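Quick one, T. Sequence first:
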Amino acid sequence: MKKLIFLILFLTVIACQKKDQAEKPTSTADEHSYSKPELAVVKHLDLDIKVDFDTQTISGKASWTIDNISKGNEIIFDENTLNITKVTLGDDEKQTKFELGKDVEFHGKPLHITIEPNTTKVNIYYSTTKEAVALQWLSPAQTADKKKPFVFSQGESVWSRTWIPCQDSPGIRFTYNAKVTVPKDLLAVMSAVNPQKKNDTGVYTFKQDKAIPSYLMAIAVGDIEFQAIDNRTGVYAEPSMLKKSAWEFAELGKMVVAAEKLYGPYRWGRYDVLVLPPSFPYGGMENPNLTFLTPGVIAGDRSLTSLLAHELGHSWSGNLVTNATWDDIWLNEGFTTYVEHRIGEAIFGKKEFEMQNVIIRKELIDNVAEYGDTSPDTRLKVSLTGRNPDDGISMIPYVKGYAFLRVIENAVGREKFDVFIKNYFDAHAFKSITTEDFIKYYNENLIKGDKTLADKIKAEDWIYKPGIPSNITPVSSADFDAIDSIQKSWRETGVKGLSQKITSTAEKQHFIDHLPDDITTKEMEAIDNEFNFTKGGNFIIKRQWFVQAVIHNYKPAYPAIEQFLIGISRTGSVMMLYKEMAKTPEGKIWAKQVFEKAKPGYHATTIQAVEDLLK
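Structure tokens:
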């Protein structure tokens, strides 16, 4: 009997141990971070920094609250080009040893810090250098108002380590408070709760009480003002841009409401946007509480505000539920592209939704063709081992991820899929997950052992195989069908009056993108005279038209193309043009000449991408 009792107790203990082990979060190795969070991991940051425009540096102290899980004697941070001057432990600031490891391209160096088994706080004194990829310092001449300097950060993917010593992995989340000292005539804002006007001291404090990964740490300092849109949304911009920006984004509050109806409460408090100077390298960056936006979205007619729907969508997919490694970037961008289009449908209607589906399908086909349909980079789950993780931020995770989610929606029905996505966001809120975590949740909560359904969706093919699976959902647009009919006849009937029939941004883009391969310079000129594409049009229309102008050697557009490339720094957009220019020897010479003029206004990541192309 005693043996039986001991056996039962033994089995109970083992079962409890297994349960405990099962409930512990699994550690995901991140090839692009030196940190070892399974041993010692950060939990909260208290940042005290000064922004100095004279020396173009940020300096101060990063105090990290840590969990020394292993009770070991070391914690490892990521740093890249920082100047680390001193490291102390605890509130009493006991000085400790630190050592920098080998510098590796794209990764920087590991920062090894000696700690004690009971250490809970590590204070790192540091300053940035002019090599900090994340920071772009702008002279007054490089801003919209041309009066005062400006600086902004861009941390995605592994560049936050160039302005803050951190455990720079999307799989590691932390809260933060910050004290930021800036010149008294400037305003500081961050990816946190923000001030809405300047004070007399130049000292601003910030709080982010939601755990975020390091790439979402963001700061901007400049002559910035604020205008509210409603009780929880508003716009920051330079004074000359403020009113037009607020008018452009008047539907921002409606977008938040539309997103909430689909996917549950917005959990970040306020949702504001900051319109940056033209050198910002992306269309937008989804920094929590404060999306950073390119001024290129200010079209004057609200025709490009769908970009806001994408960045807002990240408040659920990306910021709330985050990819654990950069190999899993499709979990951020594929889901967000899906959310973007659902918000867009709710705000702009079904016809616009259908047109956007056709446009995004063309982007998918074109991008897969550019890589080659057997390229491993056309998989959703990519391998970025030994590479710059920025390489993973192509259009593939956006457009193929979106197409995959449309396949699931089509297979199970929209109503059921909406419930699944909402529950998925709730189940993983404020967590970082891998593709495999998603597949497990998908199998347990959607497939539920239904082999017929699984075979219909073919998730493994979409995620792990290159190219475009055969079960992709068909797309169509009656509005685009009408434009396709015009494409077949305009050569005979002439182009006069077409601008009255082809009016929206989506319609114009479709028309431009499907111009005949053998179009002549004379025909290009006639179309340009009818639509005024070279001199008029918003950012998207100009970009698409200029691509055609380069392909078809339409030289009247060349001066405008140069000005376009000099005036923006959106990496993806400038690369579209430079790639076409570089396809001929004379075009490559021209591209290099334009790049030299444009380079001073480009972000470091944009410069690197163009230099690699034009080697």
